[in-house]
Amino acid sequence: MILPTDQFPPTQKPSESVSGVTVRLAGDSGDGMQLLGTQLTNTSALSGNDVATFPDFPAEIRAPRGTRAGVSGFQVQFSAEEIFTPGDGLDALVCMNPAALITNISDLKKSGILIVNSDSFDAKDLKLAKLEVSPLEDGTTDPYRTIHVPMTKLTRGAVESTGLSTKFADRCKNFFAMGLVFWLFGRDVEPTLRFIDNKFGKKAPEVAEANRLALKAGWNYGETTEDFASTYQVSAAELPSGTYKNVMGNQALAWGLVAAAKLSEKELFLGSYPITPASDILHELSKHKNFGVRTFQAEDEIAAVCSAIGAAFGGSMAVTTSSGPGIALKGEGMGLALMLELPMIIIDVQRGGPSTGLPTKTEQSDLLMAMHGRNGESPLPVIAACSPADCFQAAIEAWQVATKYMVPVMILSDGYIANGAEPWRIPEVDSLPKIPVSHPSGQKLSGEPFLPYKRDENLARPWAIPGTEGLMHRVGGLEKEDGTGNVSYDPDNHQHMVETRARKIAMAADFIDELDVDGPENGTLVLSWGGTYGSCRTAVKTCQANGKSVAHAHLRWINPFPKNLGEILKRYDNVLIPELNTGQLRLLIRNEFMVDAKGFNKIKGKPFAVSELVEAIEAIA
């Protein structure tokens, strides 16, 4: 039974209206911070706020409890205005232990609200966090509005009537923290009560009751304690009208793939091997068998890409997903798909590298691998999603190019986009473009030999379905003779085929949109790509408000570049390219357009802060 919402009465304390709030929740992996953050995000989205999130996971699967390496965090900004980032400085920070506090407190604004579980700051907790003195006692927290809350003790008292053991009672303290945060920022508890009932109501009613009681206890603590003089209210944002759903990047990619398959009247096949942070695409697609989706969890990355090649050869919409280490293993298979000139999609959800690197941290360091990371001359079209919601559109565009030009296409995402969330306006189905796909019919050949590499106006070869009468042809990794598809070692033919494969990818520039510029046509241009979009856009808007002559352009298609990119670059005295790598797009831009582009680079496993971008822009603008 759902706890009546009237047991969470409106606050009697003063309420202050603010335009937006940035909150980070931090604790051990087992403290439920991701759940707390997800509920806060969903509730804020349902309240009509614009939201942006940044979940931050430990890199180790079983990092020791209480240690700095084991800290799990979730940052969310909810606003009454349109936003593009999860925020820079924190307005509020909730810390469940010393390790969470010491690794996150530097991001809290001076005089910001710091809520700590004071029950988790004993000598053992301090030792695990490698602290000799409690940060609650050595002046570390003095610049902040620190609220000491004995969450563990209060949670145990709140759920005592359920009969849960101490171990299980302590697991409810994230709901206590949730109740307090919801009270502080005027969030509606009803969606969370429904979540509790749906998740625990039938299979573990005592756990459901304990979580409800802990939620209520946190709410009541905020109302009754003298530590809080007021609450904060964030009104709904004025977003374009429509039906919205809060969506994460990997989820949107999966849905975009399903949509693309239906728009082209194809069955969708995913061949994948689990890897962080791409695995959720496999998990999400496996739920949609009703849409003709088939998922195959292969024994390794090579088997995954080869199974996708087989599915493409058989006439399905074929996809393989991975992150940097897996893409490296797929390289030979990707070259085979290019040689076969089959349409398929390769998704790289980038993470910190090299090697195993930083599995749960974000980076943009696979761009050059996407462009050149295969043997021989093997260019592929590359599109980079710019936000969680944009992943849906990126998947559709990638399949449009793949089928129009008969070529594998790479989609680049990253950990920041994949795990981040934002409101996505659900498109009208009728507004989505049909993706025409045709296959040659054996009955139309009239006895003429089938030419598997005979090209149309887009230099695309015919997509022949195996088993179609009269369409028998040779496939494989050896060089093909143009037209016949026979194995050929002729030097002139090889050069012709290499140039033809590159030329049809360059022709895709006729299909993709030209680049838009936001701002003046002179001065300084900030050129971004991938997940840096939100931070760069916000930073440029800030600089424009400060009177700087700064414009912003964002690249989604990296190969080919938009047709008007060169013309745009020539207009500006300064070109700044912020990247979460050592300057890979800058290298491509300087090589292609001979522009003295400057780089602003960060390789720390974290997205750009708007403030650091503003400083970099104003240094040259």
What does this structure look like?
The chain has a seven-stranded mixed β-sheet, with helices on both faces. A six-stranded mixed β-sheet has the order 3-4-2-5-6-7, sandwiched between helices. A five-stranded mixed β-sheet has the order 17-19-18-21-22, sandwiched between helices. 35% of the residues lie in helices and 20% in strands. By secondary structure, the protein is of the alpha/beta class. The termini are far apart. It folds into three domains: 15-234, Pyruvate-ferredoxin oxidoreductase, PFOR, domain III (Pyruvate-ferredoxin Oxidoreductase, domain 3), CATH 3.40.920; 246-422, Thiamin diphosphate (ThDP)-binding fold, Pyr/PP domains (Rossmann fold); 517-619, Rossmann fold (3-Layer(aba) Sandwich).
Short recap of the structure:
Keywords: Oxidoreductase. This protein is α/β, with parallel strands linked by helices.
Task: Describe the structure using short key phrases.
621 residues, alpha/beta, Pyruvate-ferredoxin Oxidoreductase, domain 3, Rossmann fold, 3 domains, 7-stranded mixed sheet, 20 helices, 22 strands, 35% helix, 2-oxoacid/accept_OxRdtase_asu
